[in-house]
Amino acid sequence: MKFQAVRGTRDCYPDQMRLRNFIMEAWRRVSLRNGFEEYDSPIFEYLDLFTAKSGDEIASQLFSLTDRGGRNLAIRPEMTPALARMVNARVNALPQPIKWFSIGRCCRAERPQKGRTREFFQWNADVIGTNDVLADAECIFVCTDLLREVGLTSQDVKIHIGSRPLTIAALESVGINGSQADQVLPILDKRPKLTDETFRELMAGVGLDSKQIDAISQFQDCGSPDEVRQVLGELPNTDEPLATLGALLDRLAELGVSDYCRLDLRIVRGLAYYTGVVYEVFDTEHSLRAIGGGGRYDNLLEVLDGPQLGATGFGMGDVVLGIVLDEKGKLPQLSRRLDFFVIDGDDGQFSNVMNVVGRLRSGGLSADFSYTRRSIGKQLKEANKRGAKQAVIVRGDQVDIKDLSTGSQHNTSTSSFLGSLARN
Amino acid sequence: MKFQAVRGTRDCYPDQMRLRNFIMEAWRRVSLRNGFEEYDSPIFEYLDLFTAKSGDEIASQLFSLTDRGGRNLAIRPEMTPALARMVNARVNALPQPIKWFSIGRCCRAERPQKGRTREFFQWNADVIGTNDVLADAECIFVCTDLLREVGLTSQDVKIHIGSRPLTIAALESVGINGSQADQVLPILDKRPKLTDETFRELMAGVGLDSKQIDAISQFQDCGSPDEVRQVLGELPNTDEPLATLGALLDRLAELGVSDYCRLDLRIVRGLAYYTGVVYEVFDTEHSLRAIGGGGRYDNLLEVLDGPQLGATGFGMGDVVLGIVLDEKGKLPQLSRRLDFFVIDGDDGQFSNVMNVVGRLRSGGLSADFSYTRRSIGKQLKEANKRGAKQAVIVRGDQVDIKDLSTGSQHNTSTSSFLGSLARN
Known about the structure:
The first copy, chain A, has 424 residues and is α+β, with helices and mostly antiparallel strands.
C-alpha cells in the first residue's frame, strides 16, 4: 500500500481497540475507587518544560514541532512535567494532598523494539502535597489493585521496591559522594541487565575499587531492612530511610498487598529527579521490560518554578501490560455484544424494522439490523455473528422475540414489547 | 508563571475532565448502541496522507514534524484520512458495511477563537461499503441519538440537510459547470455567514449574472423536495438526488427523528470530497459554529489508493458541544462521588483503617481516608466534602456505619460489614 502508518505507531482496529479499552477502563475504574481524580494535559508543550525537567539531552528523544510564532514545541513523552506545571499554576487553590491520575497518549522518538513503541498510552497516578510515606504506600497499592483487577496475580508479577536515599547512604558509607555518586547511580540502574563482569568494569570505570564494588553489591542484594542494618552497620544517614522503608512495608501489609511487593535495592530508577522510595513492576520471569514504575520526587515542582512540595507517583504503559497479559494467558475474550438484532419477517416490513430500531436505541438499548433485505435465516445468521442476545422478527404490528442463546421464542405485539422495555 | 500551556491548547483540570468524560462517554455509549465499533489511528501520519486527501494548502493548517529519517509527518487534523487508510489496508478481510466510530484527539494550527481551539477531540462515525442512503440516514440518526442523550432537544438544535448532487444539478440548470461550479461551491458554503450583498458580489466575481444568482438563491431556499421540483422544473440530473433525499427523509421519519432534521439546501460543506447528502448540526439560534457535520464521500478511499467504495459519516467536536450545553443550561452536575470514607474512631486505629480501605477497594468499591490524623468530626467533614455516601468509623474490630445523606448510623463487626459487601 502507498499509504502506511508511521513506523513505531499502531493502527488500532476494533479487535485491538477492545483490548485497549479493557486496559483503559481498568486504569480509570481502579484510579477512581482509590480516590484519585482524572486530569489531562495538552498533547504538546513548549520544549523548555521538558528540558527543564530532564536536561537538554531529552530533546533528541522528542518529536518536536514549532508553532506559528516559531517557538519550539514537543509532543509529550510523559505526563509528569505537565502535571507539575498544572499543579504549580493553581497550587494555592487546590486542597492537598492532590490525588490525580491521567491516561495519556505520549510519544518518544526512540527506536521501536519489543514492548517499546513510538506512541503509547501511559497511566499515571500521583499524590502531591505530602511527605508522608503513606502516599508512596497508597500509590503502590493502586498499582497492585490494577494488576489484580486485570487478572495478574502475585505469581505473575512483582513490585520491586528500592530507596534512593538508602542507596546514596550506602554509597557514602564507602566514600562515594557528590558527582561520583551521580555517575554510579545510572550504572546501578542498569545492573539487572548487565553481566557481573560488565557491571564491575563500568563501576571500575568511574573510579571504584574492588572493595567498594563488593560493598555496594552486597548492599543491593539485601532482602530486608534488618539485613541492610547488618551490612551497613550504624550510619547516621541510614536511620531515616530505613525507618521510612519499614513504615512503607508495614502500610503495604495493612493494605493486604505484601504478596505483590518485595524489597529490591537494585532498583534505583534512571531519572535523576527521584528523592525517596522508588519501584518498578516486573513479570516474575523478568523476561520483559518494566510494566511500570515510580517513586518520590520532592523537588520537581520547585524545579518547574513552583513551591517545594512532597510528591510521589507512578506510570504504567499499555504496551508491556498488554504483552504480559498475553504471555500469561490472561487476555480477556472481548467480543462484540448487542442487545437486539431486528429482522424484517415479511416483505415490506422494513419501515417497521427502522421504527423498532429507532425506538430501541433511543431507549438506551443496543440494536442493529441488516443493510441487505434477505431471508430471515440469513438475517438470523448475521444476528449471531454480531453477538446479539435476542432477535426481534418484525411482522406487521407483531414481533417474534427469539433468545439466541437458548433458541426459545415468543410472540407479542410490537407496542407491548417496546412498552415492557421502557418500564425496565 | 514561567511555564504555561501552549496558546490554543487546554489544560484539563478534574472539573473540566468530568465534563470531557461526560461527553466522551455519551459518544461511546451512543455509538455502541447503534452497532458501531471503535477504532483509533496514530496521533501523527506521513504528511502526504493529508495532502493527498485535501490538497497541499492543508499543510499550513497542520502541526508538522519529522521522523528520524527526515520524512515529513503531521499531527492529525481530522480522523477521516487515517480511517480510509486503515480500511484500505484490510478492505478484503473486513465484512461490509463497516460501521466504525472513533473519539480522536486532533490538532490544527489555526488561530484560536470561540469554539475553535488548536487541540480538540472529535467524534467520528462512518459507514463504509454501501451506497444505500440508509447509511446516511443511520449516521444522521446516530447524531440525533447523541444530541438527545446529552439533553439537547429539537428546540435546542437542528440538523440541516443538503445535497451535493442536487446543488450541482441546480448549478447546471443555469449553465454553471466544471471549474466554475468548483468556484461557486465554496461561496455557497459561506452564504449563511454572508450578507446578501457580499454573497452577490462574490458570485458575480466568479462570473455569474444576476439571473443566475437569483435562481441559485431560490433553489437554496427551497424547504422540501416538491418545492425543488417546482423551482428547477423537470431536469434529467435531479431525479436521482431528489429520490435519494426523499428516501432519506422517509427513513429519518421511520427512525423517529424528523423533529431534529430539516432540509436546508444552503448546506454544501466546504470540503471538495463530498459526493452526496451533506449535513451540519447547528444550535437553533445559529449563534455558534457548527456542532458537527458530515456527508457522503464515495471517492475518498480510491483517492487514497484503495477501491471505489461507498462511504458516509460525520464528525462532532467537543468544544462547540460543550459551549452549546453551557449556553442552553444543559451542563450536568458532575461532582466527585465515593462509596465509603473510612475514619479512625480512636487513637491507634490507623492500621485498621488501612486494612478496611484495602479490603473495600480490592472488592471494587471506592473508598478513601484522611491523610491527617485528626478528630472524627473533622474527618466526617472531609467525608462530606469528598461526596462520600457512607462514613465507616473504625473502632477496634467494630465499625460504625454512618449514612451521610440521612445521618442514620449503625454498628456492626468489621468482618460482618466486609462480608456483607462481598456477598453483593
